[in-house]
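re: ur question from earlier - yeah i can do the single chain one, its not a big deal. heres the input i used so u can compare w yours
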Amino acid sequence: DGAADAEGIEFPGHEPPDYWDFLYFSVVIGVACATADANITSKGLRRLGTVHCLVAFAFNTIIVALTINLTAGLF
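and the output i got, formated as tokens:
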């Protein structure tokens, strides 16, 4: 079976993943810097996931800093 040898993202269950599964995977990385129940099975995708996590961390840090700055300016 060629599908068993495929590398990339390994989702739980037996049905093939759809776009919602990939959206879920991306949102979990962006919010939690984790992959939840899906496994990354290729080196290239692990590197891309690391970049995604770092960009999400920087974005979230900027949003929190701006929120604190705006809130502090109100008082």
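Helices lie at 19-32, 43-74. not sure if urs matches, ping me
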